[in-house]
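Could someone model 6-O-phosphono-beta-D-fructofuranose with this protein?
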Amino acid sequence: MEVTIREEGVAIAASSVAGRLLDDGVPQRLAAGDPALWGEEATAEAAARLGWLTLPLTSRELLPEIGKLVEWARAQGLTNVVLAGMGGSSLAAEVVCDTYDVPLTVLDTTDAHQVRRALAEGLDTTVLVVASKSGATVETDSHLRIFEAAFRAAGIDPGDRIVVVTDPDSPLEQAAIDAGYQLVLARPDVGGRYSALSAFGLVPSALAGAEIEKLLEQAGEVAPLLALTDGNPGLELGAVLGGAALNGRDKLILEDQLSEINGLPDWIEQLVAESLGKDGRGVLPVVGADPNGVSDELVVGIGSDNGDVRVDGRLGAQFLVWEYATAVAGRLLEVNPFDQPDVAGAKRNTAELLDAPAPGRPAFTDGPVEVYGETRARDLPGLLNELLDAVPGDGYLAVLAYLDRLAAFDAPVREGADFEEMTDAWMAADAATLRALLALRTDRPVTFGWGPRYLHSTGQYHKGGPGNGVFLQITGVVTDDVPVPGRPFTLGALQLAQALGDLGALAGRGRPAVRLHLTDRVTGVAHLLAAAQEA
Ligand SMILES: O=P(O)(O)OC[C@H]1O[C@](O)(CO)[C@@H](O)[C@@H]1O
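Reply:
Sure, complex below.
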C-alpha cells in the first residue's frame, strides 16, 4: 500500500500537520485504541467505535460461520443475492462485488420502480441479506417486509431465504430470531461506515461469490504499518486529507478511472462526508467528475496518476487505510469522526411528512417538470442558471435524484448498436447526466447523489458541513407503487416524504434548495437534460 504525493502544494500542506501528528503520538495512540484522540466530547463515543482497527484479525473468526452460510445458500441453489442495507451497510459489499465481478443487487432505495425490478429477478433463486447495524432503518425494514410478503406469495418460506446481519440486541436481532432467519451478529464497536471488513461487508460479498479471505489478507498485510511513525500509509493519507482541508483544499475529487478496483469512490464518499462533515467543517467528496483546476480541489487518484496524490493498494488494504486516514483527518479538523449529528433532522421531518404529506404548489411547470421552491425563474433553463449563479465561490451544487437508478438501461437502443451507441443512449436517459452537463457550466464542483442513499452519506455534510451548498432535488411520479406490509405507507409515500424532509432540513439552514418533480419520468429526464444544454 502506497501513498504518493505528486503535487508540491499538497506535500507542503501534509507536512504542515505531519509533525504535529507525530508529536502527539497519534500512530501509537491509535494502535493502542486511545479514544481520547478526538477530544473530550468525542471520547465516550470513540471508546465504543474503534473495533475497525483490529477487524483484519477479528473478522477471521467469522470465516467458518460465513462459510457455512454460503454452503447453506448453495445447497438451496440461491444464486441471486439481494442486499437490503443503507450507507455503510451496503456500500462496501457493492465495491467488493463489483471488483471481484460477482453479481449483487443492492437495495438502498425507496424507489418503487427499482424495488419492483429486484422482486422480478427470480424469487426462486433469491437470498435476501438484510443488513442494518441499528436494526431500525426505515428503508431496510421496508425492504424486509416487502420481500417477506413476496416470498410468502410465491409459496416460499422466508425462513429459507433471509439472512440478517445486525448488532447484538438490535430490534432486528430479535425479529430474526423470532422468524427463524439466518443471523450473523456484527461487532457493536464498529460504526456503519467503518464496517467494510466486518460482517456487513463480508457476509453479502461471500454469498455473492467474492473471495473474502483475500480481502482480510490484504487488510492484514497493511495493518502492522498503521502502528508505525514512518512508512505509515494511513498517517500519510490522513495528513494529506486533513492538511489539505486546513489549507483550503476541502473538495476531494476522487479519480479511479485506471484502477482495478471498481466503485471505491462511492464508499470513500460516505466515509469522508459523514465522518468529517459536521460542526461547520468537513471535506466534500466529489465522485465521477473531472477536476476544474481551482484552488480548493485536492485530486486523489486511486491506482491512477491523474491526481495530486496517488493511492495504490489492494481493496482490503484500501478499506483499512482510508478508515484510518479519515479518523486522523477528523483529529486534525477537530471533529468527532464517529457520529452523524445532522442526519436525525431529515429523518424527523420524514416521519412527520409521512403522517401529513405537504408537497405544496409548484412555482411553475415546464413541460413534464414541476418546479417547487423559491425561485424567480419561469422556465427550466432560467432556473438552472439561477442555481448555478447562487453557488458561492467556495461552494458546490448538489444534484439529488429520488429516482430508479437503473431506469436509464431501459432506454431503447438501435438493434445491432455497438457499445458506444448503447452508452450514448443510456446517458441520454440518465438523470445522472445532468451532473456532467451542469459541471460544464461552472468551475465549482457539481455532485450527484441518488436519494435516499445520499441521506446516509453526503447528507450529513450537506447539513453539517460548511453550509455552502446549493441543492437541486429531483423526484418523479410513481406509476406502480409498492405497499409496505404492516406499515401505513407505500414506498412512493416514503420516498416523497424523504425528499421533502431533506429539502426542509436544507432550506431550514438557509440553503437554496429546489425540487423538480417529473410528472413523466422518461420525458421528464430528457426535458431536463435538454434544458441543461440550453441554459
Ligand atoms: O446500518 P444501519 O443502522 O441501518 O444504518 C445505515 C446507515 O445510516 C446511518 O447510520 C446514518 O445515515 C449511516 O451511518 C449508516 O451507514
